[in-house]
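Good morning C.,

I know you're traveling, so I'll keep this short. The sequence:
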Amino acid sequence: MTDLEKALERLAEPQAKTEESPRTVDERMAASDALARTEMQESKAEMREFKDRMAASDALARAEMREFKAEMKEFHKKLGEMSNKFGTLVQDIVLPNLPGLFAQLFHEEPEIFFRVTKRKPSDRSQTLKFDVVLSGEKVILFVETKSALKPEDVPEWTGVLETVRSFFPDAGEKKIFGALASFSLDNSLATYVDRQGIFVFALGSGFLEPKNSEGFSPRVF
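The tokens, ready to paste straight into the viewer:
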């Protein structure tokens, strides 16, 4: 090989290297593009998975809401049945005992009225409701029944009794008394009712019994 050929060969080597450089860049660009596409596909897959989870969660929430509504419907149904049952207990247990208690307390035979609604004669827009009313020749007894008497029931009932005569002007000279009857009664609560001048009755041995103290003085309303 002549010196000229050797010189030309040396000049050709950098040119070859220079020609290889764009191919390397293209390869790197292609690899980067492939990586980007892979990451995009993974991102789309993760998004689909997220949407699927959200859809499943939403479906579960709707199912739970339907179940909750069904449970509430059943609860209200049972509550209504309990209310009806309580009305039956009043009718079956309280009512049969009250005439005897009335005669024992006031020495009179009463007329008995169940679930009374009364409008105020001077203002027909006002009404009062009573579970039981017993009326004798000289006495009227208004009875409020509770499945379990609570302290707040006492002043509420006292407030009703304080207005009751304006709803019954035809009561005339009859004495008006109030009573609370309960299926469950704490002794301390019985004492509280007693001090308000209200008769208190509670179940005992399957019968309704007076629970006022021996020195009880009933309030005339």
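Safe travels,
E.
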